[in-house]
Structure formats: structure tokens, C-alpha cells
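Priority: medium. Attachment 1 of 2:
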């Protein structure tokens, strides 16, 4: 069951029908095209297509800071289903302190018709996932685990479960809006459940984020951002 310390997300909807967080005064995804940005920044930033194609009889583990609408999960699911071998598996581990309701999740994802099948399955299981923290998709080849807790507690829980993350999606609203998600303590805990070669990608290019990740042991570089964003960050664990 969702922890008592976790608060349900308070959502408003703009004139385009896009969800915004009241608590953080920020949008859940880019107004230009959140799905395209997810593919570019998070999936592309971690080179998932190339890495999925090399996987065989193994489990690829993605860690995400901020489940939000589940859009990044669905983007990774599509690429995994298309490019990974049939005997490989994907474990998507996310954290969320302010989970959406089922209705808000469904409304948010209804924008993308190309995600109808995957989004429908996520919405169908979302209530059970909120109780059990885990769901199974693609005939058991994909496992979704959501830890409903504060970011530091959730990352500590990942360590207790001995997760070994292969790729990180650093999401969770802009650093200026949600600084707790982008602190040195967060980056150190991320590094503790990463291995040599673990990659990360994020939409932001904030200097303190880059420096904090470098201090935690990630080799960082700027990359071209999506849409109107000039830069984003990519990294690899040394």
C-alpha cells in the first residue's frame, strides 16, 4: 500500500489539456511533444535501442527519479518490445512521492494514440500497483516497480533490495522547482546502486546538477537538447 507520508498529486490542466503540478508549479512533460522528448532525452540519451539489441537472456534495469504520468516507462517499453530479444527482460524501477490518481493518469496519457495499448494496460494495473508496488507487462517480460516514498528513502530502499541500475532517467520536475530531487545526497545514493558503465540522461543542464553528478562518480557531458532546449546532460559511471 502507498505509504501514509505520500500525498496524492494535485493536478491542474492547461488550455491544451496538459497536466501541471500545483505543488511544484511545473509541467509534467514538454508542451511541444512529451513523448518525442522522452524518446530523445531519456531513451536516446541512454542509447537504449543499441543496448536492447545486444541483450540476450538478461535483465536490463532502468531507474527513474519521478514516475509522474508513466510516459517514460511506456516509451522504454515500446523500444524494448521492438528491439530486444524475446528472451530478455526489462525491470523499470521508479520512485514517486506524489502519485497521480488513476483518472489523472489516464487523462494524461490519452494524448498519445500511439501509446493506447501500453497506456491502457498501465491504467488497468495502476490501482494494483499502488497497493503492491509492482506490475507485470508483456507476458512477464517487463516488470514495473514503483517505490512510493521520498526520493532519499526510495533510493535507500533500492540499495536494500540490491538493485543494480543499468540506466537512469533523471526526471522529477525542474531543479529550480524541486531542488530535493537534485541534491548531492540523491546523486550519491544513485551512485551506490550503479555500476561501472551505468548511464544517465536528463533534460536539464543546470551547472550544480552536472557538478553534483561528477562528484558522485559520473563522467558528464552536454548534449543537444530537445526542441527549444539548447542542452541536456548525459553521463556514465566511472
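Attachment 2 of 2:
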Amino acid at each position: 500500500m502507498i505509504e501514509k507520508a505520500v500525498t496524492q498529486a494535485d493536478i491542474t490542466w492547461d488550455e491544451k489539456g496538459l497536466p501541471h503540478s500545483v505543488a511544484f508549479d511545473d509541467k509534467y512533460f514538454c508542451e511541444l511533444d512529451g513523448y518525442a522528448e522522452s524518446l530523445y532525452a531519456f531513451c536516446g540519451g541512454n542509447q537504449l535501442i543499441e543496448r536492447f539489441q545486444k541483450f540476450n537472456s538478461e535483465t536490463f534495469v532502468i531507474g527513474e527519479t519521478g514516475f509522474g504520468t508513466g510516459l517514460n516507462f511506456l516509451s522504454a517499453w515500446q523500444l524494448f518490445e521492438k528491439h530486444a530479444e524475446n528472451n530478455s527482460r526489462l525491470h523499470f524501477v521508479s520512485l514517486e512521492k506524489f502519485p497521480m490518481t488513476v483518472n489523472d493518469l489516464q487523462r494524461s496519457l490519452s494524448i498519445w494514440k500511439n501509446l493506447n495499448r501500453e497506456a491502457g494496460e498501465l491504467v488497468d494495473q495502476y490501482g494494483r500497483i499502488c497497493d503492491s508496488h509492482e506490475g507485470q507487462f508483456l507476458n512477464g517480460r517487463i516488470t514495473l516497480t514503483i517505490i512510493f516514498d521520498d526520493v532519499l528513502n526510495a533510493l535507500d530502499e533500492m540499495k536494500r533490495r540490491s538493485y543494480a541500475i543499468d540506466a537512469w532517467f533523471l526526471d522529477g520536475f525542474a531543479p529550480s522547482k524541486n531542488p530535493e530531487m537534485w541534491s548531492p545526497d540523491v546523486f550519491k545514493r544513485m551512485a551506490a546502486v550503479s555500476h561501472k558503465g551505468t548511464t544517465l540522461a536528463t533534460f536539464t543542464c543546470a551547472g550544480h546538477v552536472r557538478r553534483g553528478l561528477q562528484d558522485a562518480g559520473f563522467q558528464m557531458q552536454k548534449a543537444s537538447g530537445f526542441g527549444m532546449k539548447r542542452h541536456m546532460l548525459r553521463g556514465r559511471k566511472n
